[in-house]
Design a protein that fits this description.
With 243 residues, the protein is of the alpha/beta class. Helices cover 40% and strands 14% of the residues. Strands 1, 2, 3, 4, 5 and 6 form a 6-stranded mixed sheet that branches. Strand 2 and strand 3 form a beta hairpin. The chain is elongated, with a radius of gyration of 22 Å.
Length: 243
């Protein structure tokens, strides 16, 4: 069932400036949904009227103007819908304290008692990247280059676009063996990978063996290289070393 599968949301915001404590506000929220590590298309995207001027430096980053936002809804108009969308999910954010600080500040203005912590769990991909690649640049653009994620269409920051790019980066960072759909539970009594697998009776079957082409083998090696760059040692290469 769909509700039994893992629901993850990748979130980004654009704002009028850098500090919610100085009265800066959210002007765009973009969230993409993944179920069982697959994009569903059930996204959340909204532009917001902040009731204040946008800093010139912020406009240079995201290109969103005061005039464009003049007829847009305010945060309080969409707060309940956003809370319902986030509730119970695992939310993936790059540099999470920034976005969480702004969203919590918006909730606090409404005095509704909501916080991101009360609604969902959060994974910070910046923290992940620093642990996986210490001493290296770990901006979203740097991670796109490291994991071969195409961001050529990213001329300006945008909440929905950046969420879509971050989703690709996160899947690459956490790919490893999970890309095969193997969910290994903590099972001390046996090999958990084999749990729930239904064996097929091959008696009487005539199975055709298809060998990989040179192009397919090359693509496979490229994928193993990408997995290895994330710090994961692919089991195929481990097996090759023991043959």
């Amino acid at each position: 069932m769909m509700d039994e599968l893992k629901r993850q949301l990748v979130l980004d915001t654009e704002t009028t400036g850098l500090e919610p404590s100085q009265g800066h506000r959210i002007i765009e929220i973009g969230v993409v949904e993944m179920i069982d590590r697959r994009l569903t298309g059930n996204n959340f995207h909204i532009y917001l009227q902040p009731d204040r001027e946008i800093d010139a430096g912020a406009i240079e980053v995201h290109g969103i103007t005061n005039e464009f936002l003049a007829d847009k809804p305010r945060f309080e108009d969409i707060a309940e819908e956003l809370a319902d969308y986030l509730r119970g999910a695992e939310v993936i954010i790059h540099n999470a304290p920034f976005d969480i600080g702004f969203i919590d500040a918006e909730f606090q203005r409404m005095e509704n008692g909501l916080t991101m912590e009360s609604l969902c769990e959060v994974i910070d991909t910046l923290v992940m990247a620093r642990e996986m690649h210490p001493g290296q640049r770990n901006s979203l653009d740097a991670l796109c280059g490291r994991y071969d994620v195409n961001n050529n269409h990213r001329t300006k920051h945008g909440a929905l676009l950046d969420s879509e790019i971050l989703a690709d980066v996160y899947l690459a960072m956490t790919g490893g063996q999970k890309s095969l759909g193997w969910e290994a539970d903590d099972d001390k009594e046996g090999d958990s990978i084999t749990k729930g697998i239904r064996r097929v009776n091959r008696e009487g079957l005539s199975l055709r063996v298809l060998k990989a082409t040179d192009l397919e083998l090359a693509a496979h090696e490229e994928r193993l290289d990408a997995m290895a760059s994330s710090g994961t040692s692919p089991v195929w290469r481990q097996d090759a070393l023991t043959d």
